């Protein structure tokens, strides 16, 4: 059976058109797939950049904290060294003479105490330098004040006359009690002395 030449060429043309249409459809979808792929990649890449910047900032903050901590430690060490030096300078006379005084007193127990008292003048100087004032005078009789005095006698009432055994100290600048004076109803026992040490409070 013979074929019609027109039908043959029509079939060829139809096949060619079908191939072109399919190729065009496939090719037209390629850029959309690439663009879609890029849209999926870009947010991940952007998020990675943000995380990297945050890590850098955190690392910088940690370095700054470490630097400030080291600086504070150095300043604290410097302040402590300055305080020790200034304190030693104020007490230099007492500290340098103290070992010799101890040796002399052991070898000469009858040495009058008045010969040693001048060594303690440096303590008065450092207390004045710090702004510390004594609370009361030794062996003075004063009205009991619980804000300034400390006693083991719980039944002592406010205003009752007591004797100062050991003076206390207060900061004259801050008006703060550093150490209360130790007081009692009776005078402390003083060996080999019959002298009365009661002093009226003024």
UniProtKB/TrEMBL annotation:
<keyword id="KW-0472">Membrane</keyword>
<keyword id="KW-0812">Transmembrane</keyword>
<keyword id="KW-0175">Coiled coil</keyword>
<keyword id="KW-1133">Transmembrane helix</keyword>
<feature type="coiled-coil region">
    <location>
        <begin position="51"/>
        <end position="82"/>
    </location>
</feature>
<feature type="transmembrane region" description="Helical">
    <location>
        <begin position="6"/>
        <end position="27"/>
    </location>
</feature>
<protein>
    <submittedName>
        <fullName>Molecular chaperone GrpE</fullName>
    </submittedName>
</protein>
């Amino acid at each position: 059976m013979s074929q019609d030449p027109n039908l043959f060429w029509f079939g060829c043309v139809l096949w060619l058109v079908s191939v072109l249409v399919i190729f065009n459809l496939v090719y037209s979808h390629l850029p959309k797939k690439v663009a879609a792929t890029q849209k999926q990649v870009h947010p991940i890449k952007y998020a990675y950049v943000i995380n990297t910047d945050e890590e850098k900032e955190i690392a910088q903050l940690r370095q700054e904290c470490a630097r400030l901590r080291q600086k504070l430690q150095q300043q604290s060490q410097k302040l402590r060294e300055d305080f020790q030096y200034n304190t030693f300078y104020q007490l230099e006379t007492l500290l340098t003479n103290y070992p010799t005084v101890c040796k002399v007193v052991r070898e000469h127990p009858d040495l009058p105490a008045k010969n040693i008292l001048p060594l303690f003048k440096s303590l008065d100087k450092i207390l004045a330098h710090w702004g510390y004032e004594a609370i009361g005078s030794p062996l003075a009789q004063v009205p009991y004040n619980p804000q300034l005095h400390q006693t083991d006698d719980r039944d002592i009432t406010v205003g009752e006359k007591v004797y100062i055994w050991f003076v206390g100290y207060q900061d004259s600048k801050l008006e703060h009690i550093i150490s209360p004076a130790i007081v009692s109803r009776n005078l402390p026992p003083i060996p080999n002395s019959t002298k009365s040490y009661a002093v009226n409070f003024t």
